[in-house]
Amino acid sequence: MINYVPRKNSNVLLLTSYHSKLKQGLKRPNIINEYNLGKGCVDSRDARIEDFSCKRKTNRYIMLMLYFIVEVCINNGFLLMRHQQSYQKTKKRFTRELSA
Question: Span 3-18, mean pLDDT?
Answer without folding.
Answer: 77
